[in-house]
Amino acid sequence: MSCAPNPHRALTFPYSCCRWFLVALAIFFAPAPLLEGSYQCFDLRISTMKNHSQHLEDVLQYISVSWAHLTRSLEKCKTYEDQKTDEVPFLYFPAEFNILPNFKDLAENCRVRVESLPEIIASPDDVHLSKIPTAGLLYLPHPYVVPGGQFNEMYGWDSYFIILGLLRANHADLAKGMVENLFFEIQHYGSILNANRTYYLTRSQPPFLTSMILAVYDAEASGQENNNAWLEKAYQFAVTDYEHWTHAPHLAGDTGLSRYFDHGEGPVPEIIGDPSDYYRGAAQYFLLLDGTKDPHLVLVDKEHPAESLIGPLFPVFARDEQSKDPRHTTGSPGDQVTLSADYYKGDRSMRESGFDVSFRFGPFSAETHHFAPVCLNSLLYKTEKDLERISLLLGRQKDAEAWRGKAFDRQQRIQKYLWDGKRGLYFDYNFTTHTPSSYEYATTFYPLWAGLASKEQASAVVKNLSMFEQPGGLAMSRVESQAQWDFPYGWAPIQLLAVDGMRRYGFAADADRVTYNFLSMVVADFATDRYIREKYDVVKRTSATRIVKGYSQNVIGFGWTNGVFLELLNELSPALLDRLEKE
Fold first, then answer.
1. Reduced DSSP (H G I as helix, E B as strand, rest coil) percent helix, strand, coil of the chain, to 5
2. pTM exceeds 0.85
């Protein structure tokens, strides 16, 4: 049995081929049959040394086996499990799509109800969740890799980092199938979804589609003389996805930039447990901050009767007559408040951003939809540059020139609204107050990854690296909000984007240091925890977390951490790789 070389992989170090003991290990532990064909080939990265340290070897074996554990297909009953709801499992097909005959047997074997969506969805504006009374999984035609744990569906931006890992591990067909699934979502569900569940139909996630397309295309390029037919199809879907972000309601005021925006209203239903518990915590925070006058709250009264409000009602704290702190005089016993409609719009839009939960866009990021974010607009610049490249590959010279112009225009607007030359960082911009944010956040590295920063700007950002750098990599922010997307937590995808951005501008030593610190933390933590996790405390170099606001779990799996680990390992300098293996 032999393994074909992966053209996507840099040839810095030799790689092992399939090893039968790993296949046996995967078969023994996998809860479902392994993937067929090339997916049984567990391709581990082997250095020029005879053997890895056992700890690194264990991590690589875990990742190899995890691809099978985390792969879902609609023929498998575990695909329909959803810890986020208590509903009977449902599978929905697009309204215009015939239910496939073999799914009748599935309904009986897996106790899944199979139905069609009530309406054709051409855009998120066509979504009426009230007409879908029972939440369920949305049909996708190809197998896909899930993050793990409660995230048992295919997620929008997770998929980019998972695909990079799949390409490193010689699972190119699975990676390409995931991109095809995103095309299917655009065509039949109106946009790339947060994930393929009905309760995610009203929002997307950060746009990495062209990055995924080109990763797959480049991986196939040396093995196929002409893959332009697929690229032509991909181009059309990428343009549709781009237009989703560059038209209302995703426009950030008159800045010419874009924003995150969820088309839904009110509380989200997918929070594990009782969603009102999360919203109660937010309401209590705002009450302590500014009392019932806080703009995120609505006091129930004659002008605002309970029946006219959305979301659960919460009691107001009793007046503390002995306190001199005006925040404690929030109302009379018996008063009730609810979170405002604008709060819920911001809360939902935060979830589209992927950074849920942080305090980056105000407390609980409740003002997400009021900002032109650095991350989103850097991704759209990258999309424009990618579409320029794809146009050239397809011989569309005029299209390429148009995309080049769009990218230049966005670059100028990012410099105008999001760059702070005095502080040497990129910041989000509140287009409702016409003021830049002062919240120092790791997304300041996105413009470097996208290649839109000047050499001077990139140098200034890297000079501020110490704001974020910790013993285990980069922390998301400098604010300890007790939310998972703030200090002291670091996440694999941000490490990769920041590191690749620094490498792009010649800061290889800084990139290597951050890479090594993150990888060595994951390896050291795995030695005791035996899992790869969703996020890490990069200050204490541990997967043990203490999160109070928002999601408190640290999910095992974990799809994008696995993918980023392989990608970062491939980029690590030989000297630091040797050091990592000896520890």
1. 45, 10, 45
2. yes
Could you give the C-alpha distances from 181 to 18, 106, 184, in angstroms and in order?
Answer: 28, 20, 5
Radius of gyration of the chain (CA): 24
Q: Which candidate in 82, 241, 356, 428 is catalytic?
A: 356
What is the C-alpha to C-alpha distance for residues 145 and 2, in angstroms, rounded to an integer? Answer: 24
Q: Given its phi and psi angles, is residue 470 left (phi above 0), alpha (psi -120 to 50 degrees) or beta?
A: beta
Active site residue 534: yes
User: Residue 333: pLDDT band by 50, 70, 90 thresholds?
Assistant: low
Phi, psi of 192 (to 5 degrees): -70, 130
Mean pLDDT estimate for the chain? 89
356 in active site: yes
Q: For 242-270, how does the pLDDT look when each residue is reduced to its tens digit (9 = 90+)? A: 999 999 999 999 999 999 999 999 999 89
DSSP per position, 476-533: SBS---SBTTSTTEE-HHHHHHHHHHHHHTT-HHHHHHHHHHHHHHHHHHHHHH-S-B
| SS3 sequence of 242-269 | HHHHCCCCCECCCCCCECCCCCCCCCCC
Q: Torsion-angle region of residue 111: left (phi > 0), alpha (psi -120 to 50) or beta?
A: left
Least confident stretch, 35-44, 295-304, 399-408: 35-44
The catalytically annotated residue of 158, 510, 534, 571 is 534
Strands 137-138 and 90-93 come out as: parallel
CA 298 to chain centre: 32
H or E segment at 540? Answer: none
575 phi and psi angles, rounded to 5 deg: -65, -45
Residue 375's nearest CA partner among 321, 326, 456, 439 is: 439
Q: Alpha-carbon torsion 192, 197, 203, 206, what sign?
A: negative
Exposed/middle/buried for residue 435 (C-beta within 10 Å: 0-12, 13-18, 19+): exposed
Average pLDDT, integer, range 573-581:
94
**pLDDT for position 329:** 45
Closest to 375 (Cα-Cα) out of 234, 217, 504, 493: 493
- Sorted by sequence, the CB contacts under 8 Å of residue 224 that are 6+ apart come out as none
372 CB-side CA count, 13 A: 28
Compute the distance between CA of residue 200 and CA of residue 123 in angstroms, rounded to an integer.
13
What is d(CA 72, CA 243) in angstroms, rounded to the nearest whole number? Answer: 30
